[in-house]
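Appendix C: a fully annotated inverse folding record. The material below is reproduced so that readers can follow the format used throughout the book. The structure is listed first as tokens, followed by the designed sequence.
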């Protein structure tokens, strides 16, 4: 009888943890006020993420065992899934796939005189974001149906961004993989607190008039290219 009592006593906290509503846990995770309508448990639940200025996203998660959870995020212009791994002091994601419409991203910090359009397809094997450290992201992003609207309204074809984490910091190699009216190549460097962008744009040989348009985006070069250099602070 004593053994049964002890089993019951030990089982109570386990049952509490397994059935603890996610709405009780989420406020303690300091993930901000953008997450609302939390339902279910920390093992199997759902919530709504309201990104300021955009339509809300439905987020679902399921425990996979150990320290890993599967998750899905769906909404207007967003269809993503992947895994989240419990990691003290960092956000660790893996096997992230899906797509995001460019109008869901705030790209004004990158291109002031033009609005990027199209969609981004993600295939990220691993991503670790921690405060005070450079991001560690390995994978590939493909900008399909890439185009600009605004001061420049032209097709960019398809642009691929290959992400590679290194000890010195995060690097992204950018290049045109399907031709458009404007060709793009260059790189992006991410440190613990800053980013540096160095891109080169070239108008198609049969569209010389485009040079005058893309000149607004950066520094015209003697060989007909336009160099776009940006830098600033990161807000991880």
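Designed amino acids, in order:
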């Amino acid at each position: 009888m004593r053994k049964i009592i002890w089993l019951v006593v030990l089982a109570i906290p386990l049952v509490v943890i397994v059935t603890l509503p996610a709405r009780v846990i989420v406020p303690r995770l300091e993930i901000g006020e953008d997450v609302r309508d939390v339902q279910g448990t920390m093992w199997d639940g759902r919530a709504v993420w309201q990104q300021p200025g955009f339509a809300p996203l439905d987020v679902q998660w399921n425990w996979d065992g150990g320290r890993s959870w599967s998750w899905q995020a769906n909404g207007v212009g967003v269809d993503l899934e992947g895994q989240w791994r419990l990691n003290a002091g960092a956000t660790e994601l893996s096997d992230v796939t899906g797509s995001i419409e460019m109008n869901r991203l705030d790209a004004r910090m990158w291109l002031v005189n033009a609005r990027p359009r199209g969609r981004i397809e993600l295939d990220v094997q691993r991503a670790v974001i921690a405060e005070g450290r450079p991001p560690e992201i390995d994978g590939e992003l493909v900008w399909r149906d890439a185009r600009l609207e605004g001061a420049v309204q032209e097709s960019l074809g398809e642009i691929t961004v290959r992400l590679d984490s290194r000890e010195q910091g995060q690097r992204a190699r950018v290049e045109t993989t399907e031709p458009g009216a404007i060709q793009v190549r260059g790189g992006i460097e991410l440190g613990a607190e800053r980013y540096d962008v160095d891109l080169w744009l070239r108008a198609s040989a049969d569209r010389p008039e485009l040079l005058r348009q893309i000149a607004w985006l950066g520094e015209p070069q003697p060989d007909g290219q336009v160099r776009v250099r940006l830098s600033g602070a990161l807000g991880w």
